Amino acid sequence: MSGTAEDTWGRVAEDGTVYVRTDTGERAVGSWKVGDAEGALAFFKRKYDALALEVGLLASRVESGILGLDEALSAVRRERRHVAEANVVGDLGALTAQLDALEALIAERRAQRKAERKRQLEEARQVKASIVEEAESIAGGSDWRHGVGRFRELLEQWKALPRLDKQTDDELWRRFSTARTAYTRRRKQHFTELNARREEARQIKEQLVEEAESLSDSTDWGPVTARYRELMQRWKAAGAAQRDVEEQLWKRFRAAQDRFFSARSAAYAAQEAEYASNLSKKEALLAEAEALLPVRDHRAAREAFRDILARWDQIGRVPRASVRSLEARLRAVEEAIQAAEANVWRRTNPETRARANDTMAQLRASIAELEKSVAEHRSRGDAEGERKAREALEARRAWLAEVEKTLDEFSSF
To answer: How does residue 6 score in pLDDT terms, banded at 50, 70 and 90?
Structure first.
């Protein structure tokens, strides 16, 4: 080898030893025995370039996040050893600084990840706490239909969340598990009791169906209608049987009811037609009865009315809404006839005539006495006494006129 060579980062000594300059001084990185010194220096600089490329590639992988943090840190530390021991000529301090920067970046990302992990764990704790609260709320309620599915959803949510610290996670899980167990136990008890009630309801409703079917062909419309109403009330009070059994029993019960009420409706329709015809007949009789008014001959009117009543009773029933008005009109005719008969009796009664004659005799005697009283008061000049006697006299004369009129009426019969 001939000569020496050097630059900013290293040199080649006369004996062919190649040195690299670092912050702590020179370090021998090799020797060169053949060729000139410039060639030797260029060779070791090329080795540096290869090392710098390797560090640059590592930096690119670390900065891009391709490597995990632990893997990246191991790679940086491994590369740091390579740089410290590298037999190259170049700015090793720059490579070390680059590796320092990478290690700081890894530390920063680790701190960020730790903070993110802490935030995620806190969120997970809050979510798990809310899951537990909802589970305890469901466990205290009675939503037996949707509660099971919701517990399943809550469990899947729990599994998807990260674990917390052991104490917190175990405590929350214990509460969740306790709530789910309590709900499951209560739900099982509920359906056990429900099945018992449904079985009891089935037995009761089978009896009701059998009775309803036994009544379906009855023509005792009133009592059986009331009985069906009672059966329906008992049906509602019995509660529900199993769904499929309930549907079958209800179909039978309903069919029995429909059979009875359809027959009743047909019977009532025929009855209403008959009642309508009866109404027309009774209205015709009423017109005949009302033609007897005013009563002139009470005997003839009574005889005709008896004949009308006999025909009336033979006709039969009319629509309920017309009963009162028909009976009121018929009663009005009968009362008019009765009034005419009473009037005749009053006028022809011998006892009544005798009482009228006695009253008339008494009034005439009283009038004679009052006439004397008037004359006496006048002769004495007692105007007040005369006035009172005259008023009494006029009253007796008016009364006498009424009694005489009544006797005249008696005389006409």
So the answer is: confident
Burial class of residue 329 in the structure, from the number of CB atoms within 10 Å of its CB (0-12 exposed, 13-18 middle, 19+ buried): middle
The CB density around residue 317, as the number of other CB atoms within 10 Å, is 13
| CA proximity to 149, closest of 117, 157, 261 | 157
- What sections of 317-412 are H helices per DSSP? 320-348, 350-380, 383-411
In sequence order, the 6+-apart residues with CB closer than 8 A to the CB of 8 are: 21
Q: Which residues of 121-145 are buried (b: 16+ CB within 10 A; e: fewer)?
A: beebbeebeebbebbbebbeeeeee
Instruction: Return the domain boundaries, the chain.
Output: 5-116, 124-195, 202-271, 275-348, 350-411
Signed CA dihedral, 217, 218, 222, 227: sign only? negative
Q: Do 76 and 102 contact (CB within 8 A), yes or no?
A: yes
Which of 43, 37, 13, 39 minimizes the C-alpha distance to 27?
A: 13
pLDDT digits 0-9 by tens, 18-77: 999 998 899 999 988 777 889 889 999 999 999 999 999 999 999 998 989 899 999 999
Fill in the amino acid letter for 247. E
* Tokens linked to 303: 């005889």
pTM over 0.85: no
Render the burial of 148-182: b for 16+ CB within 10 Å, e for the rest.
eeebeebeeebeebeebeeeebeebbebbeebbee
Give me Rg for the CA atoms of the chain.
64
DSSP at 106: H
- Do residues 27 and 9 touch, judged by C-beta distance below 8 A? no
Give the residues across from 26 on adjacent strands.
Answer: 21
From the number of C-beta atoms within 10 Å of its C-beta (0-12, 13-18, 19+), residue 197 rates as: middle
Q: Which residues contact 257 (CB under 8 A, 6 or more apart)?
A: 212, 216, 228
**Confidence class for position 247, pLDDT limits 50, 70, 90:** very high
Q: What is the pLDDT of residue 61?
A: 93
How many CA within 13 A on the CB side of residue 302? 9
